[in-house]
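Quick question, first post here. What does this chain look like in 3D?
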Amino acid sequence: MNMESKTDNCDLKLVSPTMEYKEQVMNYRKVFLENNESFDGCAGLEECNTYEEWIDFDNRLSKKYGKEYSPSTVYLAVRCSDNKLIGIIDFRHKLSEFLFKYGGNIGYSVLPEERRKGYAKEMLRLILEYCKDHGLSKVLITCDKENIGSYKTIQYNGGILENEVIDDVNLSKSGIIQRYWIEL
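> Answer (accepted):
Ran it through. Tokens below.
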């Protein structure tokens, strides 16, 4: 399934990972590792040495998380004009106890050199359409309290802050995770 948007400042589509994007995804991994970036929404890309290992999402992640595993759909955010991988976004179909407290239904990341261009806002807008089509009436999205770009992206897409929780699992830099709900 592909989702496209051509707005004033975004020329973006969400596509399922295919072999066409193997090199770009593995380069994405390399850039994030080299820059000590957080692999939000990347479905464990940091733990995989090969693309083939990474795209075996359900098998790999269900073994890792056991009963806490939540099936998800991973999309690549690709710029239409040059077919460049801009970001990765993951829609988790249901909330495990861990996801309810810390991770939410959606995680996403954008290449460092492509940030502050509106891509995250558009990625989230596009995935929200998919969530609605998947039968959800609202989704939970979380972010680090100090991640201004992320909470602005969430708020731009209708996110309402429910609360903040202490990050006792070391996902954030600030030690505080904000929990936002978006009505679909």
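The two ends are 20 Å apart (CA to CA).
Residues 49 and 121 are 29 Å apart (CA to CA).
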